[in-house]
Specification:
Elements (H helix, E strand, L loop, with lengths): L13 H11 L8 E3 L4 E11 L2 E8 L5 E8 L3 H10 L12 E7 L2 E7 L3 E2 H7 L7 H20 L2 E2 L8 E5 L3 E7 L6 E2 L17 H5 L6 H16 L9 H12 L4 H6 L35 H14 L10 H5 L2 H4 L3 E3 L6 E3 L29 H13 L1
Antiparallel strand pairs: 1-2, 2-3, 3-4, 4-6, 5-6, 7-9, 8-11, 9-10, 12-13
Length: about 400
């Protein structure tokens, strides 16, 4: 599953545009019949276009099953191999999209996956970027941290966590149950090389910007940023340049430690080491989340949420919170936990009472609706997205 065109927040090379437009005029069209290894599929309609192909809603003939088929030009062997790796763990339990079939159609590779509802990006856009409540965010955060823990168990790094790649499963029947999708640029931890450029620039971890050693902690940073956007209803920095993003990171979290900056291959691109500021922290922590504290009924819960975000967004990856540590954070545990039936594990009350044991940690209860904190910037991000869509 790829990201919709409207989600693109970084500048793309011109040849990428011509490639995707060319794909739209390719051979796979609505009404086509695709012969898979595990069934025959009829293309009903196209759902969207991503960086590397299109996604179609398809009916599996002879059954009542509907799937999403990602149609990619070329072999897509890397993504297929990674999806096979994912099959080693329970996709429902770990909130990861499941591949159900994979086959070739002429020059295209078709990857059939379970059909999900809509991305968090589209969900936020439809509600005019009105921020979610802390309780709703807690439900999403828990499931995605469980997903990261699952990826960590098989030594995989997603490398592209963003609003577009977190899908609501079925918002009507299972509110805020989510799954992580799109493993097109994922990789094994052992393949992560210092200096490698990865992740959407908006969600990019500081160690990628600075050229520090890389591992699975880049995903935790991106998830922390996603949660910030869900709470504030706006991106917390611009994306005109990497410098703007680094500056916003420093304004929010303070200067990275000197030992971290000294290791960076690209540190000199953003920082100048002088006798005056060497070894000193330049900016005081000041996050937009603090402005919303007065509007929330449960100030303590918001403070716990902010503390979790700070730990997820640590500039020094060695100090960043791990998935296992995050699941034990007071934001999830303090006064909110119930034992999981038949298990020593625990989860938030908001994701308790699974409908079946196979769904495990992913199942959620409907949340009580309550007003989200007002945000004066929510209309601005919507206008920016509309402008980009017109371009």
């Amino acid at each position: 599953l790829g990201s919709p065109v409207t989600s693109r927040t970084t500048r793309r090379p011109q040849n990428r545009v011509s490639y995707t437009l060319g794909l739209l005029d390719g051979e796979v069209r609505e009404g086509f019949i695709l012969l898979g290894k595990k069934g025959v599929y009829k293309v009903e309609k196209f759902l969207g276009e991503g960086s590397f192909g299109r996604v179609a809603k398809c009916k599996k003939l002879g059954t009542d099953k509907v799937v999403a088929i990602k149609i990619v030009s070329g072999s897509a062997q890397t993504e297929i191999n990674l999806l096979k790796e994912l099959s080693k763990i329970d996709g429902d339990k770990h909130n990861l999209v499941k591949m159900v079939d994979c086959f070739r159609y002429k020059s295209y590779t078709c990857i059939a996956m379970e059909l999900l509802d809509q991305s968090l990006y589209d969900f936020m856009r439809e509600r005019y970027n009105q921020p979610l409540t802390v309780e709703e965010i807690k439900t999403i955060a828990w499931q995605m941290i469980v997903a990261l823990k699952g990826l960590e168990s098989i030594n995989l790094v997603h490398c592209d966590i963003k609003l577009d790649n977190i899908m609501l499963v079925d918002q009507v029947s299972e509110p805020f149950r989510v799954k992580l999708i799109d493993f097109g640029v994922s990789d094994k931890i052992t393949n992560m090389r210092t200096g490698r450029l990865m992740q959407n620039m908006v969600y990019r971890a500081p160690e990628v910007h600075l050229g520090l050693p890389l591992d699975q902690r880049v995903d935790m940073w991106s998830l922390g940023y996603v949660l910030c956007v869900l709470y504030t209803g706006t991106f917390i920095h611009g994306w005109d340049s990497e410098y703007d993003i680094i500056r916003a990171m420093v304004n929010m979290q303070g200067m990275p430690e000197q030992k971290v900056l000294n290791q960076g291959l690209y540190t000199e691109s953003f920082f100048t080491k002088t006798e005056e500021n060497s070894g000193k922290k330049l900016w005081k922590l000041d996050t937009p989340l603090q402005q919303s504290l007065k509007t929330e009924k449960s100030k303590r819960e918001v403070e716990q949420f902010v503390d979790l975000l700070k730990r997820m967004l640590m500039m020094d990856p060695s100090k960043r919170i791990s998935p296992s540590e995050a699941l034990r954070h007071p934001f999830f545990t303090l006064g909110r936990m119930q034992p999981t039936a038949g298990s020593n594990n625990t989860k938030p009350a908001a994701v308790e009472n699974s409908k079946s044991s196979s769904k495990g940690l992913s199942s959620v209860q409907p949340l009580t609706a309550r007003s989200a904190p007002p945000n004066k910037y929510s209309h601005q991000i919507l206008k920016k997205k509309k402008k980009k869509k017109k371009q």
